Amino acid sequence: MSDTSNTTLANDTTTSDREKRIVRTSVLGIVTNVLLAAFKALVGIAASSIAITLDAVNNLSDALSSVITIVGTKLAGKAPDKKHPLGYGRVEYLTATIISVIVLYAGITSAVESVQKIVSPEVPDYSAATLIVVAAGVIAKVLLGRHVSAVGKQTGSDALVASGSDALSDAILSSSTLAAALVYLACGVSLEAWVGAVISAFIIKAGLELLSETLSQILGERITPELAERVKDLVRQEDGVLGAYDLILSSYGPERLVGSVHVEVPDTTNAEQIDALTRRIQQRVFSQTGGKVIIATVGIYSRNSNPEVSGVRNRVARIVMSHDYVLQLHGFHLDEERKAMTFDVIIAFEAPNRQAEFEQILGEVRAEFPSYRVQATLDADISD
User: Fold this and answer.
1) How far apart are CA 252 and CA 91, in angstroms?
2) Are 281 and 263 within 8 A, CB to CB?
3) Which conformational region is residue 331 in: left (phi greater than 0), alpha (psi within -120 to 50 degrees), or beta?
4) Residue 317 burial by CB count (10 A; 0-12/13-18/19+): exposed, middle or buried?
5) Among residues 153, 243, 246, 344, which is most buried (max CB within 10 A)?
6) Distances in Å between the alpha carbon of 277 and those of 173, 239, 291, 379?
7) Global pTM?
8) What sign has the CA pseudo-torsion 273, 276, 279, 284?
9) At what angle do helices 158-187 and 192-219 cross, to 10 degrees?
């Protein structure tokens, strides 16, 4: 079996293990939340406690979220096919979106119910059993939240991380419910509806934050500086590579990033050497990232071997880098025979007018080198 086949097989095994861990953790969440919801619903109704009843509804929505996480993970794990050649990994983002909508809906309905109870209050009737159930729910939610969050971070599952954070928030809110009960027993002051309103506000906030995060992922986010540097470092490790630039990675799920990179090579490198280099880069990045990063395209920049060109390059660099919003100059090449100069400039998104800044730079370089035909490309600050 070839190295590529072995790597692919290992990646498939890793993906399968990841899926199993997510499913097991989600099943644990379902069982825990259903049991808590059942107990809290019975206690809430018996004690006429709106806060405890809302806690039960929240647990039920958490259980539904876990079911959706399982379904989404299974769908995301489907093998690539003709219709979706890069796989179904982005289903996980849709799963997280659905969960955020459920959380948001639960928060809004809870808020409406709480306001109604504030307007028309009911006197709660707490018992020792009520307090024990609520206290047990707090402990269960803390343990569940910590476990689910940990597994979510280890597997790269945003849905699990969100569920874990939600569970820890629920523990805090359940603690406030317990505190309200103790206040009523000690002072005879009912804070039930107000605590319910606070719980609702937190649930709505969590839903909005989760929805914002998942929509941002669907739109496409900048890769982390750590990942960008790691991939570029792997590319630069190949013999013949003088620099790595313009790394673009698009997410097709938590476990699959596909993109391109430009490499700078000596102008004496021939087509056969470039072909071999490109294949080595793709294989190295794929294997060293556990199959997570796929470099589909490797672009080539040719660096002049003539030492006299370095003086021209330095003069151009001084002009370009003197502008405040310029982040990088790369891909410089000088064709003395054709009197042509080419280079790329990265201008920060913070620049008031990137295009105007670029045209000013181009004008200054052309003025400095009137005998050359200057062509430049305005690059975006896509990755660090």
Assistant:
1) 9
2) yes
3) left
4) middle
5) 246
6) 57, 8, 19, 24
7) 0.70
8) negative
9) 170
